Design the sequence.
């Protein structure tokens, strides 16, 4: 059986950590002693550096290779230890020359704790093309001592091949491995029947909806699964690198504007032609969160005349900084946590009257006002839509939570009184490659809160963990 150490130079500086060994033929190493001899022969000392130890954490067969994950380390490690590529292609059965004998107590796998196992799953929700684990984040998680697994085809829809994951050090999972997984990384929740195969205490991290999914909620609790719906993450400065709602909203706002430009029966920019001058389209973006601001910026780049509207007065400067005009209807609804509060009946009536008057001169409306976990506020009434000019377009980004427009049909594009009303769903998935990259980095940063040096350690004093964990009735 040929022993190869892939991807390493003949002489390469090695640090303590994880290394991958592969054998051809698709068969396990015959004995642990054989593995020991290979590892001994693969290390060479340029200086006296003291005893080193090794342990095999796991093994799997991938295509025609057997992969061994090996952790190397000791109490007196020297940076002068170098790794030597097995270029001479030593064969098992031919005795490699050991560089030094391993100290006793390090040859047996008995009693060795397995590294934390993380699994990136293939999404099964209709239309979902994103993935929670990319080759980039798989490599970073492996560097932190985790054993990273992925399902076949997990990243295909987002443009990440299985080979890219393998090259990053991730391993292909099969059904027998689910019981050993410590944390599942997902975008939308896998089927509860699949999650039921996980061991008690395992974690699931993603955009979960246990309050709406009774099957998922039934798996939570003690000693069940630990669910971390990332939309519950506190909106603090420290949590910004983990904020999946913001990262995905940026892609959604961008795509919503492109859909609006496609639906509109006119140019967005002003054009001067031999047939005369064509005025720019007038675009109103409702809601100035991350999605709304991205929609404003994209519409401006397309050359439209853009206005932004939000009931929070502090968004005025943000809208104006993007070159758009702030539409002031004289109603303020600043609330807690960066979100708008509910309007009173009098405030809502005043807002709707002034907005209805303004909409008569607008060509395109992009609605983005939404609060996670709540039904989206209805801002455009049926009467407002019917008062708009024929050929106008409304793209309702809030369709997933009910919609900001009273006539929106989630997931459909309809025409009402001559106005096109589009209610697209899961817009971030349309930009699956970069949306996945951003989402996976958010997940990596969140998982790093409880994965340390290859171990799972939860600090429930950390509000980011404590407040993101879902508790029934909590």
Sequence:
């Amino acid at each position: 059986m040929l022993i190869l150490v892939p991807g390493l130079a003949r002489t390469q500086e090695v640090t303590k950590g994880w290394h991958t060994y592969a054998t051809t033929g698709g068969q396990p190493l015959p004995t642990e002693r054989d593995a020991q001899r290979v590892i001994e022969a693969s290390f060479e000392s340029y200086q006296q550096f003291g005893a080193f130890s090794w342990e095999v954490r796991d093994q799997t067969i991938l295509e025609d290779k057997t992969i061994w994950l090996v952790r190397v380390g000791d109490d007196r490690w020297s940076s002068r230890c170098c790794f030597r590529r097995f270029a001479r292609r030593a064969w098992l059965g031919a005795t490699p020359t050991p560089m030094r004998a391993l100290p006793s107590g390090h040859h047996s796998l008995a009693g060795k704790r397995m590294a934390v196992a993380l699994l990136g799953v293939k999404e099964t929700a209709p239309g979902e093309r994103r993935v929670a684990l990319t080759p980039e984040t798989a490599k970073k998680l492996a560097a932190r001592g985790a054993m990273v697994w992925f399902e076949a085809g997990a990243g295909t829809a987002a443009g990440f091949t299985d080979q890219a994951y393998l090259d990053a050090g991730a391993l292909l999972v099969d059904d027998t491995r689910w019981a050993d997984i410590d944390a599942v990384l997902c975008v939308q929740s896998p089927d509860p029947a699949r999650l039921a195969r996980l061991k008690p205490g395992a974690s699931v991290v993603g955009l979960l909806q246990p309050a709406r999914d009774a099957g998922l909620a039934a798996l939570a609790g003690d000693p069940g699964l630990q669910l971390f719906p990332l939309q519950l993450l506190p909106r603090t400065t420290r949590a910004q690198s983990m904020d999946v709602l913001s990262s995905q909203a940026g892609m959604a706002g961008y795509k919503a504007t492109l859909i609006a430009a496609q639906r509109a029966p006119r140019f967005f920019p002003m054009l001067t032609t031999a047939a005369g001058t064509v005025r720019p389209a007038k675009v109103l973006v409702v809601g100035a969160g991350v999605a709304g601001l991205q929609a404003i910026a994209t519409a401006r780049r397309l050359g439209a005349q853009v206005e932004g509207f939000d009931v929070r007065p502090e968004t005025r400067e943000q809208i104006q900084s993007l070159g758009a005009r702030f539409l002031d209807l004289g109603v303020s609804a600043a609330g807690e946590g960066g979100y708008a509060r509910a309007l009173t009946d009098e405030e809502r009536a005043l807002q709707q009257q002034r907005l209805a008057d303004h909409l008569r001169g607008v060509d395109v409306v992009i609605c983005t006002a939404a609060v996670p976990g709540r039904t989206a506020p209805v801002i455009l009434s049926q009467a407002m839509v019917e008062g708009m000019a024929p050929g106008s377009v409304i793209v309702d980004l809030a369709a997933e939570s009910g919609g900001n427009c009273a006539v929106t049909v989630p997931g459909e594009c309809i025409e009402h009184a001559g106005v096109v009303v589009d209610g697209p769903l899961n817009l971030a998935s349309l930009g699956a490659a970069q949306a996945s990259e951003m989402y996976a980095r958010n997940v990596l940063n969140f998982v790093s809160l409880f994965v340390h040096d290859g171990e799972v350690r939860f600090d429930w004093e950390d509000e980011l963990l404590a407040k993101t964990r879902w508790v029934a009735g909590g």
